[in-house]
């Protein structure tokens, strides 16, 4: 264990050092006007937080990013069970993307680690046992019915209605903590998906249907239908509503950064297509001139959601430190995964400028409770909208990242985690799917922040220099 742990630590340190040239925090002497326009707000503090963006860049690009990327490659974190075939609840014209890059590759059972195959087999076995058990219970009840003494008998049986009522009560209690509507993993259409083999990148899925998704999220499921809620004259809007909007905006920004960083460049003549960063796509999505001046603030909101999920990981660290992260394909890999998680959590806990969630949902208890319930309802709707995405790969990553954010909110606001009981599984529970989504969703945010620094470098150079860098970067499937 110590030998593998030491090896992994050396790899992480070397990776940290190798990124130093790429992620320089000293202003480049040849920064152009675009840097002043697009990245101007990245020299400030994160809104409603006492943390400078520069501090987040240093933490993420040097320490967190290499560590979280190592973790999500491990078997425990790369497989997730989701139902990508759920019916859209909001409209019927959810046209499916027919482009090959939209499709998701499903996992064959033989490709899964042992622990996941065991879960599938156990579910099948449990179904058979339940059927046999029910038959035996009915037979035993029939045989004992005439022999029992009706005067001394205590009727401990429960009617079907009572059993269902208890199940409904448990679901209701669990739902009070959840900000997402989780997929039923026992559903016939739920399947394991390999997130490494299905990376998030540009697929060609675009307007008008993609715009319909985000319009529905912003116009119908945010507290206000305007960007002005988060800043400007309306900044006196209550903190909770600003918080909600910035989370959604930050998630949207992160996705747009991914799509710009993993763009498909068509090869000329006999040259193969390559994946790599597209500075022009990034400019189109964030240039103030093409976004009514809002692009820089959108980039800033990315750092806000990053701080929120970072805080969730710090808060739930005592719980996660008790997990084994067992996948079963290799004992060595399982030990490496455990060590890598502990190493990341230690790094995160040492950060000094965490988001303070205790500032939210305060004041009048009744009003705070009502606002929190409205908050949960709106976010659950957003998770349901992900079932309306027409591109399978976009739907996969949309579900993963909204589940990650929902899990973070559950950690921060369930009221069941404190410094005294965070390691008690009787008071707080996370499913394996929630844990996998939490780490992969945070990895996406971490990657986006790292890519922003890359785009700053690319956009600060001359056209010739940029083409040379892109040619070298595109040799690697990002």
UniProtKB/TrEMBL annotation:
<feature type="disulfide bond" description="Redox-active">
    <location>
        <begin position="97"/>
        <end position="102"/>
    </location>
</feature>
<dbReference type="Pfam" id="PF04137">
    <property type="entry name" value="ERO1"/>
</dbReference>
<keyword id="KW-0732">Signal</keyword>
<feature type="binding site">
    <location>
        <position position="201"/>
    </location>
    <ligand>
        <name>FAD</name>
    </ligand>
</feature>
<keyword id="KW-0472">Membrane</keyword>
<feature type="binding site">
    <location>
        <position position="214"/>
    </location>
    <ligand>
        <name>FAD</name>
    </ligand>
</feature>
<keyword id="KW-0560">Oxidoreductase</keyword>
<dbReference type="GO" id="GO:0071949">
    <property type="term" value="F:FAD binding"/>
</dbReference>
<keyword id="KW-0274">FAD</keyword>
<dbReference type="GO" id="GO:0016972">
    <property type="term" value="F:thiol oxidase activity"/>
</dbReference>
<feature type="binding site">
    <location>
        <position position="249"/>
    </location>
    <ligand>
        <name>FAD</name>
    </ligand>
</feature>
<comment type="similarity">
    <text>Belongs to the EROs family.</text>
</comment>
<keyword id="KW-1015">Disulfide bond</keyword>
<feature type="active site">
    <location>
        <position position="394"/>
    </location>
</feature>
<feature type="binding site">
    <location>
        <position position="203"/>
    </location>
    <ligand>
        <name>FAD</name>
    </ligand>
</feature>
<dbReference type="InterPro" id="IPR007266">
    <property type="entry name" value="Ero1"/>
</dbReference>
<keyword id="KW-0813">Transport</keyword>
<feature type="active site" description="Nucleophile">
    <location>
        <position position="391"/>
    </location>
</feature>
<dbReference type="GO" id="GO:0015035">
    <property type="term" value="F:protein-disulfide reductase activity"/>
</dbReference>
<feature type="binding site">
    <location>
        <position position="285"/>
    </location>
    <ligand>
        <name>FAD</name>
    </ligand>
</feature>
<keyword id="KW-0676">Redox-active center</keyword>
<keyword id="KW-0256">Endoplasmic reticulum</keyword>
<dbReference type="InterPro" id="IPR037192">
    <property type="entry name" value="ERO1-like_sf"/>
</dbReference>
<protein>
    <submittedName>
        <fullName>Uncharacterized protein</fullName>
    </submittedName>
</protein>
<feature type="binding site">
    <location>
        <position position="252"/>
    </location>
    <ligand>
        <name>FAD</name>
    </ligand>
</feature>
<keyword id="KW-0285">Flavoprotein</keyword>
<feature type="disulfide bond">
    <location>
        <begin position="145"/>
        <end position="180"/>
    </location>
</feature>
<dbReference type="GO" id="GO:0034975">
    <property type="term" value="P:protein folding in endoplasmic reticulum"/>
</dbReference>
<keyword id="KW-0249">Electron transport</keyword>
<keyword id="KW-0325">Glycoprotein</keyword>
<feature type="signal peptide">
    <location>
        <begin position="1"/>
        <end position="20"/>
    </location>
</feature>
<comment type="subunit">
    <text>May function both as a monomer and a homodimer.</text>
</comment>
<dbReference type="GO" id="GO:0005789">
    <property type="term" value="C:endoplasmic reticulum membrane"/>
</dbReference>
<feature type="disulfide bond" description="Redox-active">
    <location>
        <begin position="391"/>
        <end position="394"/>
    </location>
</feature>
């Amino acid at each position: 264990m110590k030998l593998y742990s030491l090896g992994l630590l050396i790899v992480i340190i070397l990776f940290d050092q190798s990124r130093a040239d790429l992620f320089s925090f000293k202003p480049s002497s040849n920064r152009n006007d675009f840097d002043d326009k697009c990245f101007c707000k990245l020299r400030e503090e994160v809104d409603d937080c006492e943390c400078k963006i520069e501090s987040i860049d240093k933490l993420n690009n040097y320490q967190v990013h290499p560590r979280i990327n190592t973790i999500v490659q491990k078997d425990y974190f790369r497989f997730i069970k989701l139902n990508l075939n759920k019916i859209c609840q909001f409209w019927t014209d959810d046209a499916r993307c027919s482009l090959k890059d939209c499709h998701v590759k499903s996992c064959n059972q033989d490709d899964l680690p042992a622990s996941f195959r065991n879960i599938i087999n156990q579910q099948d076995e449990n179904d058979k046992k339940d059927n046999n058990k029910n038959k035996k219970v009915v037979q035993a009840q029939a045989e004992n019915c005439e022999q029992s003494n009706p005067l001394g008998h205590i009727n401990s049986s429960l009617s079907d209605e009572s059993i269902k009522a208890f199940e409904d009560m448990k679901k209701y209690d669990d739902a009070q903590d959840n900000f997402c509507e989780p997929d039923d993993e026992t559903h016939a259409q739920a399947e394991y998906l390999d997130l490494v083999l299905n990376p998030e990148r540009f697929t060609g899925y675009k307007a008008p249907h993609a715009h319909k998704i985000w319009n529905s999220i912003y116009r119908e499921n945010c507290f206000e239908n305007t960007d002005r809620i988060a800043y400007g004259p309306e900044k006196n809007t209550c903190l909770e509503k600003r918080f909600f909007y910035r989370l959604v905006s930050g998630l949207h920004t992160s996705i747009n950064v991914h799509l710009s960083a993993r763009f498909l460049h068509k090869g000329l003549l006999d040259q193969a297509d390559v994946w790599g960063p597209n500075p022009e796509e990034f400019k189109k999505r964030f240039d103030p001139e093409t976004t009514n001046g809002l692009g820089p603030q959108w980039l800033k909101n990315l750092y806000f959601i990053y701080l929120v999920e970072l805080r969730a990981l710090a808060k739930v660290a005592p719980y996660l430190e008790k997990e084994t992260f067992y996948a079963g394909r290799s004992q060595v890999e399982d030990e490496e995964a455990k060590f890598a998680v502990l190493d990341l959590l230690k790094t995160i806990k040492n950060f000094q400028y965490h988001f303070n969630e205790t500032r939210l949902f305060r004041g009048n208890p009744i009003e705070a409770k009502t606002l929190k319930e409205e908050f949960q309802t709106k976010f659950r709707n957003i998770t349901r909208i992900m079932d309306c995405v027409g591109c399978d790969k976009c739907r996969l990553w949309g579900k993963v990242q909204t589940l990650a954010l929902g899990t973070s909110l559950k950690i921060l606001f369930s009221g069941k985690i404190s410094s005294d009981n965070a390691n008690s599984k009787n008071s707080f529970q996370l499913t394996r799917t929630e844990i996998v989504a939490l780490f992969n969703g945070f990895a996406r945010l971490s990657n986006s922040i790292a890519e922003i620094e890359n785009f700053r470098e690319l956009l600060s150079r001359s056209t010739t220099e940029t083409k040379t860098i892109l040619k070298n970067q595109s040799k690697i499937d990002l």
